[in-house]
Amino acid sequence: MHRLSRRSVNSLLRYGGHRHRDAMPVASIGSSSINELGGERDASGRRYSILTHLTSNGPASTKPLKSGNMIPIGKRYESTAADISATDTPVEKYEYQAEVSRLMDLIVNSLYSNKEVFLRELISNASDALDKLRFLSVTEPQLLEGAAELDIRIQTDQDNGIITLTDSGIGMTHQELVDSLGTIAHSGTAKFLKALKDSKDAGSDSNLIGQFGVGFYSAFLVADKVVVSTKSPKSDKQFVWEGEANSSSYIVREETDPEKMIPRGTRITLHLKRDDKGFAHPERIEKLVKNYSQFVSFPIYTWQEKGYTKEVEVDDDPAEAKKDGTDDGVEKKKKTKKIVEKYWEWDLTNETQPIWLRNPKEVTTEEYNEFYKKTFNEYLEPLASSHFTTEGEVEFRSILYVPAITPMGKEDIVNPKTKNIRLYVKRVFISDDFDGELFPRYLSFVKGVVDSNDLPLNVSREILQESRVVRIMRKRLVRKAFDMILGISMSENREDYEKFWENFGKHLKLGCIEDRENHKRLAPLLRFFSSQSEEEMISLDEYVENMKPDQKDIYYIAADSVTSAKNTPFLERLYEKELEVLFLVDPIDEVAVTNLKSYKEKNFVDISKEDLDIGDKNEEKEKEMKQEYGHICDWMKKRLGDKVASVQVSNRLKTSPCVLVSGKFGWSANMERLMKAQTVGDSSSLDFMRSRRVFEINPEHSIIQTLNAACRSSAEDEEALRAIDLLYDTALISSGFTPESPSQLGGKIYEMMNMALSNKWSLQTQEAEIVAEPQATLEAEVVEPIETTTGSQK
Prior knowledge:
CATH class of the largest domain: Alpha Beta
Shape: elongated
Binding site for ATP: 121, 125, 167, 172, 187-188, 211-216, 266, 461
Protein name: Heat shock protein Hsp90
GO cellular component, one term: cytoplasm
CATH architecture of the largest domain: 2-Layer Sandwich
CATH topology of the largest domain: Heat Shock Protein 90
Radius of gyration: 44 Å
Strand order of the largest sheet: 10-9-8-11-7-6-12-13
Keywords: ATP-binding, Chaperone, Nucleotide-binding, Stress response, Transit peptide
Family: Belongs to the heat shock protein 90 family.
Structural class: alpha+beta
Distance between the termini: 172 Å
Low-confidence stretches: 6-86, 200-207, 776-780, 786-794
């Protein structure tokens, strides 16, 4: 005899085993009915959960499970197992029940994060009702009798806080009213689509929006009472549904008031909560319609206050007439004034048509630009646009735009929430907070609309769930955006891309850092100044075309400006060989190029780092130089100590005596400067990355030759050692580094200036004074004979 596990016994006791003690004797729980796994089997080999109630006789019955405050979240299904011989054991099946008031509270307070979506959901339901009527009227034209126009009308009562939304759609019968509004998560649209799919004669209508069956209850976000009056063309009677926010029940009655009768369709009346009566303002309703339901395929009218100016006569004041003293018999010209006459009328709110649903060949450039200005509140025309439809595994339509300028006051390119991509599902606006999911951060400047029927949204339609569909959409959208930008770069008007680069160049450089997969698309779009093009930026393709036949790498130097870059000593030998060098003057340039690593199989090489190869290596000459100047390198390294990793003979200098280069895998001088300026920089990593510096000397320079002689004759001479220190400090500045002690450097320079200028002008002054004294004596001697001669003549 098999023993029950403790879990099985606890399950029996918890789920009502005590209620069936009389009907379930111990003998019935034997080895033939319960196996070691704690399950039961019927004759067909299916196993049932041990959690079900066991009875000794009778077939399986269905009873409600009284769960109290427990909210079941699913149903129990039968599971198959291996066929094991067993006797028939009767079971009881129970249906999960839900606590309606608690479920309604979850829908109203937890499902939606933004209250204003209630209007979007109600308009979507009205659009579905109109779509159903339009579809059914093809085979049943009598359904359109009584009200031929298919539209949606929204009227507000601001004083009483009431919003009324009326559609002339299919309406609902009594039973449909109970099934659709009385059953939570029952979607009439989903049921209608299933019927169409099952029908062989009818095709599916992709314009229908609803799918979850909870959109109607979003009305309770802003209303404490909702009244639905509906009339179906299939019924002679009009019925009313009434429900309140905090109630678990509702009322359905027949409409008897003749003034409230409608020919066909549904009228929803929302009695707003005290805190939400601001939604009853006509202008706010108009704004919500334009934001969420601008492109619904049926006209939406809102009840708006209008006004016009007219002139009316003004009665004369008797006192003023008497004061004027005019004759009563003379006819006076009557005074008039302008007043604004106000009136109310229905105003078409969704005038803009969804041009992305049209064939791109039929849409003009003017229409694209007008749609862009209206949708994104822009005043300048876009630089480029792309209208495309993607079919296959994922189907969606989209229009993308490249703006003419960056938004005013929004220069932060790391902000992922730009609200530039408006996501629609079946022409209904869902959200504009999906930038990070549909576009990478560096393409956040791209604006556009995306409309798809395949997006995996949550029930509130506010969260785009991560899925394979989203990844495919993202990849295709990014590809289209690159094609659009590439089209601008290949335009005959070079100024177009210069304008684009001025506004969005940093975004593409950020893409080089963050998006390794699209390096091949990003690299041709980059622009830089160079040693042969200091006024006009060039592309990497142009650089490669200008390369020397024996040039293997793409050379670059990072600096804070073009002036600093072109005057750096690292360029001297490359200028002589006419090798072009890119100037990276933007703070993000060096990081972007470092992440690219290469372009068209040519590596990027920083000319400010050690082991630079410019194609003129001569091993025999280098060996001779090392033998001749090896001792001065050792002498300088001994003096400089840990300040440098080594002292070497340079192959990149022509006119400068020395230069300080960075390690091959460390930071350059420009990067070190930028990292020091970071507010939250890590000082420990800074010390590590800047630890290796190589001091390179130019053996052809007179200063180095003089020091070489000093090294051989008097290596311990104090002036020679101080010259080495000053040489190193000077190389720090000329190479782009920051001296550790500017004051000490200043003192050394002053000392050298004093030595060079000492007594230079003071000696010349003394010599001039000595020469001036005999000249004065001679002049006196010359005067005397003149006076004597004059006297003798007299």
